[in-house]
Amino acid sequence: EIVMTQSPATLSVSPGERATLSCRASQSVSSNLAWYQQKPGQAPRLLIYGASTRATGIPARFSGSGSGTEFTLTISSLQSEDFAVYYCQQYNNWPHTFGQGTKLEIK
Amino acid sequence: QVQLVQSGAEVKKPGASVKVSCKASGYTFTSYYMHWVRQAPGQGLEWMGIINPSGGSTSYAQKFQGRVTMTRDTSTSTVYMELSSLRSEDTAVYYCARELTMIVVAPLGYWGQGTLVTVSS
């Protein structure tokens, strides 16, 4: 099973600033990496897939990068609605494992 | 538009089984794989398994092997997830989620609203 490790567990950032979230895979997942956003009481929402492709309707301030084992999600200028928990997931191999999440909170 | 509508909350006793349904609409049901993901209270997301609605083939996470069964009914465009021998640690919100595209490997582009299963004596 591929283990996905996200860092940091919690990130405190002020609105308007940039946030950088990291995700590491225990073995290569090629570019088969997705990022999801989850707000309290809601289902996760797909943000990024293929490591760098924005899903439909996702604002351009969200960007993803990386391949192999190291991945990054960057939010260029945080808006109030961006404060949430973010998960990465590899879908290269079954089981399609998730990271433990990064909570993005208002500083 | 794609919609996944799940069945309502359940309360079960330890040792019992639960069967959660997920009714799909807005697309060709047999064309996209469906996954099940769960989330314990205050915890992260845990992938449980996948079903091919076309042929019914499944693959389960090893953790759930022997306890989970995923099935589908093509006449009603519904997938089911049954979990047996429930214990308190199975208390969680269970989500069905459809793959974004029909290619071989794809992320989860559409999610159901979630079903809370509470296991308590």
Describe the structure.
The complex is a heterodimer of chains A (107) and B (121). With 107 residues, chain A is mostly beta strands. Chain A is 0% helix and 48% strand. Chain A has no helices and 10 strands. Chain A has a 6-stranded mixed β-sheet with strand order 2-10-9-4-5-6, with no helix packed on it. In chain A, strands 1-3-8-7 form a 4-stranded antiparallel β-sheet, with no helix packed on it. In chain A, β7 and β8 form a beta hairpin. Chain A is globular. The mean pLDDT of chain A is 96. Chain B is mostly beta strands. The relative contact order of chain B is 0.31. The model of chain B has no long low-confidence stretch (mean pLDDT 96). Chain B contains no helices and 11 strands. Helix content of chain B is 0%, strand content 50%. In chain B, the strands form 2 sheets. In chain B, strands 2, 4, 5, 6, 9, 10 and 11 form a 7-stranded mixed β-sheet that branches. The interface between A and B is medium-sized, with 23 and 23 residues.
Spell out the key features of this protein.
heterodimer, A: 107 residues, mainly beta, six-stranded mixed β-sheet, 10 strands, 0% helix, 48% strand, B: 121 residues, seven-stranded mixed β-sheet, four-stranded antiparallel β-sheet, 11 strands, 50% strand
Brief account:
The complex is a heterodimer of chains A (107) and B (121). By secondary structure, chain A is mainly β.
- As laid out across the biggest beta sheet of chain A, the strand order is 2-10-9-4-5-6
Please give the radius of gyration of chain B in angstroms.
14 Å
Topology, number of strands of chain A: 10
Helix and strand composition category of chain B: mainly beta
In percent, how much strand structure appears in the residues of chain B? Answer: over 45%
Question: Which runs of chain B of at least 5 residues are low in confidence (pLDDT < 50)?
Answer: none
Total helices of chain B: the number is 0
Q: Can you give the mean pLDDT of chain A?
A: 96
As a percent range, the share of helical residues of chain B equals under 10%
Beta-strand fraction estimate of chain A: over 45%
Bulk shape of chain A:
globular
According to DSSP, the number of beta strands of chain B is 11
The most extensive interface, with participating residues per chain, is: A-B, 23 and 23 residues
> Could you give the distance between the termini of chain A?
35 Å
Tell me roughly what share of residues is in helical segments of chain A. under 10%
Query: Which sheet architecture does the biggest sheet of chain B show?
Result: 7 strands, mixed
Distance between the termini of chain B: 40 Å
Specify the structural class of chain A: mainly beta
Shape call of chain B: globular
